[in-house]
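Standup notes
- DV: blocked on the single-chain target, sequence here:
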Amino acid sequence: MDFKQLLKLLILIASIQLSAQDKFDISGLITDIDNNGISFANVLLLRSNDSTLIKGTITDDNGSYKIENISNGNYIVMGSYVGFQKTYSKSFNLSNTYTVETLVLKEGNQLDEVLIKAQKPLYQQKVDRMVINVENSIVSAGGTALEVLERSPGININRQSNSISIVGKEGVVVMINDKISYMPTSGLVQMLEGMSADNIESIELITTPPANFDAEGNAGYINIVLKKRTDLGLNGSYSIALGYGKGITNNDNINFNYRKKSINFYGSYGFSLDERAQQFKTSREFNDNGDLIASNTVTDREPNQRNHNLRLGLDVNTSEKTIMGILVSAFDNRWSMDAVNNNINSENGNPTSFVILDNDEVNHLKHIGLNYNIKHNFTEDKFLSFDIDYLNYEFDNPTNYRNSFFDDNNTFTNSELLRSGKETPLETWVSKLDYSNRVNENLKFELGIKGVKNNFENDVSVDNFENNIWVPDPTLTNKSVLDESIYAGYGAVEYGIDEKTSFKVGLRYEHTDSKLDTDTQGTVVDRNYGIWFPSVFINRQINDTLSVNLAYSKRITRPTFNDLAPFVIFFDPNTFLSGNASLQPAISNAFKVDVNYKSYFLSLQYTNEDASIANFQERIDEATGRLIFEAANLDYTRTFGATLGLPIKFFDWWRTQNNFTFIKQKVRTFYNDEPIELSLGNFSANSTHSFKISEKFTAELSGFYNGPSFFGSAKYNEVYGLNVGFQQNFGEKWGTLKFSINDFLDSVKFTGGTDLPEQNIKTNNTFDFSNRTFALTYSRSFGNNKLKSSRNRETGSEEERRRVN
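- DV (later): unblocked, structure below
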């Protein structure tokens, strides 16, 4: 079945009107004794014979309400509001659309407002996802979204290759407010590093996504939910954070929402600055005709990362059931660095030469995204939504190198100049149509189609300064053009077998047409393929405290744009990082079992992935002797993962959340056409302790440990860290002050490499991206936060943003 046939089938299914029984609407008005409509009064629909609650709603600005899609029967309506006496309608039989007589609320004994504040736990296990409530974490204050992810259960951030993995699996799709970020991973990591944690409400980990999610991403989805103030009138919040750790850090953000009648205007702006120093160490050795050749480099980096992030949105209710909106997102992220690289080359332990490489680098990423959305609600449980997105990215990565060479006695011999550049304008168009209909309490179905168009022109250059002119290096200079189209359609059905058992099945089809042309090699990618992606979910609520979830999904991981539009970054004259345009997409099948008992959870997962894409793999070019780090396809990766969550309450003033993850991974790859099989068990844990010292003064201690793990064919050592924080709440009027120390032990370093004697390669690397950082954060809300909320805004281009790696 091709895509056109699938589209016809989806349209045919959407045209079938499923109805288990007739449904009707109930409307009415609630006023005070002066006949003034009461806004936001509570309205409950009750069964008249036993007062069973059927459905509830609230009144609008004029005191009117509407309860939709109700089966025939005998009902009564109850109206209530703080400070007024409850009022009931007369009993009525619903056999058609019905208008309830006006309910008049009389003032009773006026009560002072009672404010009940329930703090969410740091970790919540839901049916299809793990929710991390970041806003309740003190140590996250003044930090970044990337640092929060690093402390999340089962997540590993490798800043060396700018990659994110969940439970040992790469191919993660990152969403912002339910919208996929289609930028390349390197740009995404850079964006998350510049996003203030103070503007994050929660992070959702979705490891087995349903059919309405794109099939992209082996490991699943990470959804970052930003704080949104969506009440009537003007409201919002802001925070200011300043930190120091071998350089200053600064994170400031403000978000606002203004709603009046049918219009809702909202937005946020964030600024961040990070000047913390970094250090890398790389070494390699190999045997050359009986001689041991070695090269060691120490890199001291002085980076400066400056990010601006802006989001502005406007929603308009064009009718009672139709809303349309425009969303503009933009950022300007500039990362610059001055570095000194000291390189020593030796033979059989004796120095043969020294090289000092001074370089300055700029990585400038600019983005603007536009989204138009219109959504029509036929009923409360039936809607049609359409999105169209335009995404534009501009990458500019110029780097200058000055290499000074010295002989074995450390006497200066000569110097050379080298420069590299990368310019990549990327454009993406996305259109998306979704239809959802809950036929009754037990049956719901979803249908959708989507189209994506990607294109870029990538210009990578490497020049040597010879005889007072710049001479291109033909082995590293490349121009390429990508033209890619992806079309998709999906259908899903959710059915409740009984009160305790439900299942959801879905089927998604994606067709990809991708072509990459270069000026040096001609056409290097010409792929045209279609794949079916099934998914199955089963939930069984055994009793009030115990439930079991089963899930299966098939996924795809496509090469990122950063790999298809390769770059060149030198660590020393013979060691550099590059892309790989010949990468193939990886296909995975994932199986998952979740057991939830009260607030405890156990998750078991097995994934079988073919042609896995592993970043930052090491390869020695036999012709030039250069050590190249690049993404590569493995033959396969088999991953078993188990995650256990144990919240413990020692005392009323001391609560803790503990998460333990075990990963058993087996990988098979090839080096110089020789098969390599590696197997490793990895254990990781994180523990967060919250202390309530007084009503308004609290503290938090958190730590994590990640055992030795694979990174493709490379093996990296354990990593551990400790964070502490204190918080003083000055009340609603004066805000909150937080003080935190992240990486308290200054221990977060990534050390490891490749040791393959049969392939004559041995490397060892240390990447120290962070250091002990002290941060002070002040945050405060403003405006009206007690009134009506607006919709949760979504776009259709979330998956595409992720690939802007």
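- Follow-up: Residues 3-15 form the longest helix (13 residues).
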